[in-house]
Amino acid sequence: MHPRPDPVGPGQESVWDYPRPPSADVTARRVEVVLGGRLIASTTGAARVCETSHPPVFYVPRADIAEGVLEKASGASWCEWKGVATYWDAVVDGVRFPAVGWSYEDPTEGYRPLRGAVAFYPSKLDRATVDGEIVRAQAGDFYGGWITDDVVGPFKGEPGTRGW
After folding, report:
1. DSSP 68
2. Number of domains in the chain
3. Is residue 155 part of a domain?
4. Is residue 94 in a domain?
5. Tens digit of pLDDT for each residue in 107-153?
6. Pairing of strands 146-147, 57-61
7. How many whole angstroms from its chain centre is CA 38?
8. pLDDT in tens, 77-103
9. Is residue 93 one of the residues assigned to a domain?
10. Is residue 94 classed exposed, middle or buried when 0-12, 13-18 and 19+ CB atoms within 10 A define those classes?
11. DSSP single-letter state for residue 29
């Protein structure tokens, strides 16, 4: 059973209006990632993935991530829509931050905007921002959604939401 969507205010969108399978579109919004006290990514060309019951996930083009920060991590997973996910560690000033992000190196048709881009888990960062607003992390270790004031839930990931 799905929950009742939260009320939508001016300038907001409900994650319950997002599609399934998810959409993937390039956005001009400013996306920034800070880790280890350093700005490691900044872009106005991120791909924004929206899926029913989840806050958006922003994928940063690799060209907009600081050179030499990412190192391939162990493990992989599979998404029924996007394909095989690769995981990434970050190394900032000699400090390793394990599994801070993931990518789809060869995404399925319909998700080509994700090729060559990395999504970061907000919960594993010092800070992530969208247009200067500090992102709040989606609950749950599996999910990497970016919660901002312009999206409303409830969001999958909280205890009791597994069956949504």
Report:
1. T
2. 1
3. no
4. yes
5. 999 999 999 899 999 999 999 999 999 999 999 877 899 999 999 99
6. unpaired
7. 19
8. 999 999 999 999 999 999 999 999 999
9. yes
10. exposed
11. S
Q: How many residues are there in the chain?
A: 164
Structure tokens at 105: 């190196």
Distance, in Å, from the CA atom of 144 to the CA atom of 149, rounded to the nearest integer, reads 16
Cis ω before 3 (30° cut-off from 0): no
pLDDT in tens, 34-43: 999 999 999 9
Angle, CA of 112, 134 and 145, to the nearest 5°: 40
Query: Residue 28 burial by CB count (10 A; 0-12/13-18/19+): exposed, middle or buried?
Result: exposed
If pLDDT is split at 50, 70 and 90, which confidence band does 52 have? very high
Domain range for 99 is 13-145
The CATH number of whichever domain residue 90 belongs to comes to 2.170.150.40
Side chain identity, residue 118: V
- pTM of the entire predicted model: 0.96
Is residue 1 domain-resident? no
- Show Cβ contacts of residue 71 under 8 Å, excluding neighbours closer than 6 positions: 88, 89, 90, 91, 96
Nearest to 82 by CA among 67, 100, 53, 104: 104
